[in-house]
Amino acid sequence: MTARPPARFFVIDAAHRFRSPFTPTFLSILILAGATIAIFATTGIALASQQATIDRINSPEGRLVTVSDSEGKAGLSSDSIDVVASVTGVEWAFGVSPALDVSATAIPGGATAAARLVYGELPPVIRSESATKSMLPDMALAGPGVAASLGLRDGVGAVSAAGRSGTVIGQFKAAPPLEDLNGDVLVEPSEPGRLLNLWVEVDSVAHLPAVTDALRATLVADNPGALSIKTSTELAGLSTDITSQLGRSAVLTVSALLATVFVLVAAVEYARVSGSTRDIGRRRALGATRTAIVLQVLAAASLSALVGVGTGLVAGVVVTVIAAHAAPSVEFAIGVVTLMFLAALAGAVPPAIRASRLDPVKILRVP
Questions:
Q1: Of 98, 149, 209, 332, which is most buried, counting CB atoms within 10 Å of its CB?
Q2: Full DSSP string of 300-360
Q3: What are the residues whose beta carbons fall under 8 Å from the beta carbon of 278, sequence distance 6 or more?
Q4: What H or E segment, with its residue span, contains residue 7?
Q5: Contact partners, residue 286, CB within 8 Å, separation at least 6
């Protein structure tokens, strides 16, 4: 019984075949590097661009649902905040009352600013050194420059309007999509009230339709039909369309390139086997099994594939970064490398089987 050669034999033999003859090795490397770069230059760039587009779609503005009672006929209750916050997919809910003009209590007849009662914790887009949790009823935060316009020294002080009073204890700054609040004074309420606007941020644009439907069913209002609900639901469809269209295109492109790699590598390995038939015949005559011959051919093809795919990976990442200004994901890169290597290995299987079935007697026969 013939013993199978140790694993290091196949590694050493693959290195020898990698160097000589070098022409088929060079062609294999060129094919695999070119196909790998082609995937990065097409699907990779498209995926990077898609992700950038989806990130823009998933901006705070794109994920916002605005509920308004602009005519004051809906009777939207602040109790809606807690109900809405429990809806699946909601990141935060925040509401304000209709505006009331306030002025500094110590400056009768002074400048005024719009004050609104706020319900719900301050969302991440509103930044302040004083968190809502630490504010007591009737404490307030002023937008950038508002305290100075009211004449409040050091940015703090009492404000009042229509028999109500509050104390400005600090400043806030609102980022999009709530930047319109920067000219107001936000007051912590002492009791539930009516909302003019309720803003709801979802965690993904894909959840907009479901959350919008849930809002219509759960909002606490005297006349829900008078409410105006604005959202960018079309962005959810756009995000889905972009993903599905690119997915189909990527499958076709990658499949075509994998098939091309399979065919070309098979052709190159057939040529390599044809050029080394006498060597294969000698090995068979000396006792090499068919399995050993198959493994020798596959080991040589694997080494060429590793070099070609590795070269294509580095070049492909560089191309993607330059063209799309973003690096491809690690998952995508690993997937491309794995598929290319497997396609090359599969292409080498038919030539390896042919090599194992060569008749050493016919090959070594002297005319």
A1: 332
A2: HHHHHHHHHHHHHHHHHHHHHHHHHSSPPPHHHHHHHHHHHHHHHHHHHHHHHHHHHT--H
A3: 363, 364
A4: helix 7-19
A5: none
Contact 57, 171 (CB under 8 A): no
Tally of CB atoms within 10 A around 36: 28
Token pair listed for 186: 């936000």
Q: Is the pLDDT of residue 184 over 90?
A: yes
Owner of token pair 């209590």: 105
Least confident of 30-34, 138-142, 328-332: 328-332
Burial zone of 367 (CB within 10 Å; 0-12 exposed, 13-18 middle, 19+ buried): exposed
- Closest C-alpha among 264, 276, 263 to residue 355: 276
Structure tokens at 275: 């050029």
Helix (H) or strand (E) holding 121: none
What DSSP string describes 151-175?
T-GGG-EEEEETTEEEEEEEEEEEP
Tally of CB atoms within 10 A around 249: 13
Is the previous residue joined to 177 through a cis bond, with omega within 30 degrees of 0? yes
- pLDDT bin (cut points 50, 70, 90) of residue 140 is very high
Hey, what amino acid is at 111? A
| Strand boundaries in the chain, DSSP class E | 64-68, 90-96, 100-104, 112-119, 126-128, 139-142, 157-161, 164-174, 184-187, 197-202, 228-231
CB 24 within 8 A of CB 268: yes
Q: Give the DSSP H or E segment for 193.
A: none
SS3 69: coil
> How far, in Å, are 113, 121, 126, 180 from residue 183 at the CA level?
7, 19, 13, 7
Q: Residue 143 above 90 pLDDT?
A: yes
The three-class DSSP label of residue 113 is: strand
- Rounded to 10 degrees, the C-alpha dihedral 310/314/319/325 comes to 130
